[in-house]
Automatic annotation (TrEMBL):
InterPro entries listed in its UniProt record: FAD-bd_PCMH, FAD-bd_PCMH-like_sf, FAD-bd_PCMH_sub1, FAD-bd_PCMH_sub2, FAD-linked_Oxidoreductase, Oxid_FAD_bind_N, Oxy_OxRdtase_FAD_BS
Originating organism: Microterricola pindariensis
Gene3D superfamilies: 3.30.465.10, 3.40.462.20, Uridine Diphospho-n-acetylenolpyruvylglucosamine Reductase, domain 2 (3.30.43.10)
Protein name, as recorded: FAD-binding PCMH-type domain-containing protein
PANTHER family: BINDING OXIDOREDUCTASE, PUTATIVE (AFU_ORTHOLOGUE AFUA_1G17690)-RELATED, FAD-BINDING PCMH-TYPE DOMAIN-CONTAINING PROTEIN
Pfam families (alphabetical): FAD_binding_4 (PF01565)
Family according to the record: Belongs to the oxygen-dependent FAD-linked oxidoreductase family.
Keywords: FAD, Flavoprotein, Oxidoreductase
Cofactor(s) of this protein: FAD
Domain FAD-binding PCMH-type, residue spans: 50-220
Amino acid sequence: MSIAESPVFTTLVPLHPAAYAELAARIDGVVTTPSDADWNTARLAWNLSADQRPDAVVAPRHAEDVRTTLLFARDHQLRVVPQGTGHLASPLGDLAGSILLRTGGLLGIDIDAEELTVRVGAGVLWGDVTAALAERGLMALAGSSPDVGVVGYLLGGGISWFARSMGLAASHVTAIEAVSGDGRLLRATAEEEGELFYALRGGGGNYAVVTAITFRVFAVRDAYAGMMMFPMERADELLGAWERWTRELDESAMTCFRLMRVPDLPELPEFLRGQKLVIIDGVVAIEQAEGGADPTAPTGRTADAGRTADAEALLAPLRALGPFLDTFGVMPVSRLGELHMDPPGPVPGTGDGVNLDELPRAAIDALLGLTGPDAQTPLMVVDIRHIGGQLAIAAPDGGAVNRLHGRFLLFTGGMSPSPADAAVLHAAVARVLEALAPWQAAADYLNFREVATPAERLYPVDTLARLRAAKRRYDPSGRIRSAHPLQ
Ligand SMILES: Cc1cc2nc3c(=O)[nH]c(=O)nc-3n(C[C@H](O)[C@H](O)[C@H](O)COP(=O)(O)OP(=O)(O)OC[C@H]3O[C@@H](n4cnc5c(N)ncnc54)[C@H](O)[C@@H]3O)c2cc1C
């Protein structure tokens, strides 16, 4: 039975905006409805192409506000849609009958330098955690983009530049504070509320609204990182060479092969404007990652030690390909958020991503036929991240998603300022994914699926059964709606 069909929602009647005055009076946070002047700002997602039209937006100040909102939703038979930034807003679909619960006001970063952990509020962004940790010589397993929300990223798994040597970021979470769908304030750890702790680490935000999260950090200051640029005309030769290079690659290295059509924008440097490029960016870990409350425990995997010379040796085969620009060198890990050139703020985007088992010649031909130098395509980027390494091995203390399937993770998309652009991009993305379907892995990575995706494509059967049981236990009425529901 889908959530929409569950008993609580069969009698759904839209609530008059005035009824929200009652909720506003009961919480310290802010309630915004369509009759408020700032409605269009309040409902905005990071992905500006997601035209979110909930019944109301609630911005809680603390966990008690979250609980009050969930109970109000219960009394009025509404759904609650938790959202940090809205990076993954596209798959949410129709939000009629829903309260959009924006967690941006749940702040706070508490570093425990003794235990090597950090506790952050649900509204905290990766850039802020990275900066606070760097001041103490510490690092967390952030993704490529500083304005992604910590909680949304961790609930889906979390792939950092160190993921091939340290696994998914979610496997390093130690405690989660949350309000369950049925309104209980809970703390989930390996010892308490074990099924909730399991489900929230990779199983998305289906069971509870997370208010704070604690995870391990590592004493790492520098990495060997950068990018190499080539003209896209060489894509065929370069993708083949990169794929061969990844086969026996040390876990300390993580790179992304990108086909990029740079827009012709005046704010970009002249030599990049309007260019078609191949970019290989990435990171080689060069410091032993001391970390975890107990580094000798099975969970305390350490990064492969590698010094600068070793990193250079690892990258030598790529350098031999002759990039016209090569920025690889030692840099502070606090600057890794600049590496991938992700948009610095909200943009309208349309894209999708899948895991691939292999990238043989036939797959390269299929991909480049649609997106290579001679293709007419609206797709601005095709990213292929090399995964495997520790990402392929189930973390012994991990949660619902404790490993990734396949050797590569593909994401492709572009900018969609209008619905017409989005429709064109959707079709182009679908063509690429269809062409690569023969090599698609058994399960995809939740955080890279930006269209509604059947849960069976995200989790193996036994994992899905356990997640559905957790949903029934913590959100029996199906109150909470996540980006990727379980039905
Ligand atoms: C430019 C860009 C770069 C990216 N780079 C990486 C990367 O390097 N590595 C990587 O792994 N991923 C990456 N991602 C994917 C990213 O991890 C997902 O989009 C992630 O879901 C974003 O989390 P968010 O909180 O910012 O987004 P949101 O859209 O706010 O949240 C996503 C979903 O998480 C759940 N959620 C969020 N907060 C809560 C909460 N407090 N309680 C309960 N549920 C909640 C909800 O179901 C929500 O729909 C990137 C995405 C973009 C757009």
